[in-house]
Amino acid sequence: MLSIDKVIEIHEGLLRVSDVPITIATEILWLIIGIVSLADIIKNRKSISSRGFIFRGFILGIILLIESILFINIAETDFSTSKEEWKSQYLIPYIKSLPEDKLYVKDFSQILEIQENKNKKIESIYLNNKKESVWVELSVIDKDKIKKKFVVQTVIRKEPIKKAYLTYKIINKTITPIYRDNLYYETILHIPEEYKILVPTK
Known about the structure:
By secondary structure, this protein is α/β, with parallel strands linked by helices. The chain contains 3 helices and 7 strands.
């Protein structure tokens, strides 16, 4: 099973790939500075005092250190994984492997117009973007037997059941600005077949 740390690590590698052009430009700039500094030391070696020689040598050493760090960053960059491959080979398998949480629903009402500052709202992300989700206000009983009311983005599925319940997945760390730990994933409101629902409008 994939760990969230591995998913984050591969994504950070993708970010480094996007930074490579800037890193290469910086590497070239420091290389030019290093060559100019070395040429200056060689050209003025007879007129430079021992203290000045040590100082210029120290500066050249710092330039070489910066050059080495930049070169290592470029050399260690993995160019083999694209954003699409990261999503299909790491992110989606990780989310699919997560355990499903379940909340029993006491009552729910569909919200046709979501208001910005009303109640606690939880967005949902679906691996299949074709799913039609709606906003629903739920009254639930959590794992600690405490009644809660909140608004959640969900897909509604009719099933041959007696009582409604909500299923969803959560991650314990933010992976990217889009895939965050304050969202639900693959959220489904399971309701009895006889319940009536409104078709989502765009």
